[in-house]
Amino acid sequence: MAFITLHRERLKYNFERLEYYFKSKDIHWSVVTKILCGNELFLQEILNLKPFQVCDSRISNLETIKMLDPNVETIYIKPTPKRLVESVVKFADISMNTELETIKTLSHEAVRQGKLHKIIIMIELGELREGVMREDFVEFYNSVFELPNIKVVGIGANLSCLYGVLPNTDKLIQLCLYEQLIEAKFNQEIPFVSGGSSVTIPLIFRNMLPSGINHFRVGETLYQGTDVYKDEPSSLLQQDIFTLSAEIIELSEKPMVPEGDFGTNLEGETFTFDQTNVGKTSFRAILDIGILDVDRVNIFPKDGEIGYFGASSDMIILDLKDNPKNYKVGDYLEFSLNYMGTLRAMNSNYIEKRVG
Q: Highest taxon of the source (predicted)?
């Protein structure tokens, strides 16, 4: 069975480095756990690090987190579906919101449960994902402040996730100015200006982060050690927090070009082949994972000499060329993964999860 390993010490190293940098700027940060897909083993590793907050986009994952540690503060980080209002109030201490009618429903449910539900209101800064339009923002806040059992604890914005709109000083200053406007107009303290995600972290090191930004939601940089702004590894952090291992279940020397008439494969692809390879052979290794489990463009063999032939639903076929390292059936090949590669592998029930 294929397995994915979370390397505990590498994760701890990145967490402690980020904790140091954020504390030096008086910034609170929340660990985004959605990449872990609710896996209890890996979630416990996060909770062992004692994060200030954890946040997720799946309420079932927050339920698991509360089961593991009832005292950790949780954030639901996408607009609340009305069907989940009861669960969001129960398992999320804070939720991010953009719809007044939904917040009214959260208020009603918070009254019913006898709880104070905290919210961060998201504002649209150009990414065109979730967010209240800027011209509606003041009136929106005015309506929310009137609701019982609802406490506004933040203003936030999302950038980069949909169209790749990068955060910059001007956009983040706008966010800070809106927070100052709301505080002044309504005489209400807004503790968190949540303008930070992994893509915003490099602005800290360039001294380009406005001082008013005091809350980050961080996933990719913690788990991948990446400078998301430049889409490259960060020299300040460790990479390969996760490693995917898959077993060779067949290894044979076979022709490089298939024989017969060609149609389409299960993904609707039609193939052509370099005819200069007719008559040539290569060692083919078949692995016990397929496109049901992973997206091959997001996983990378640690043996850089290995190539890719193709994949079906539950098998990947790799090109070992002349097999200079003498791989054999039963050996495991290791892969590095980017963020989407890790997310896909974590979501597969057919890949075992281990801590190393």
A: Bacteria
The amino acid at residue 148 is: P
Can you read off the two tokens belonging to residue 1?
A: 């069975």
What is the total count of domains within the chain? 2
- What confidence tens digit (pLDDT) does each residue in 51-98 have? 999 999 999 999 999 999 999 999 999 999 999 999 999 999 999 999
Distance CA 59, CA 78 (A): 10
Annotated catalytic residue, options 12, 23, 25, 34: 34
> Residue 34 catalytic?
yes
CA 356 to chain CA centroid, nearest Å: 21
For helices 40-48 and 8-24, the axis angle rounded to 10 degrees is: 40
> What would you report as the CA-atom Rg of the chain, rounded to the nearest whole angstrom?
24
The reply to whether 2 falls in a domain is no
- Counting Cα atoms < 13 Å in the Cβ hemisphere of 148 gives 8
Are 83 and 113 in the same domain? yes
* Alpha-carbon gap, residue 305 to 66, rounded angstroms: 45
Q: What is the CATH number of the domain that holds 278?
A: 2.40.30
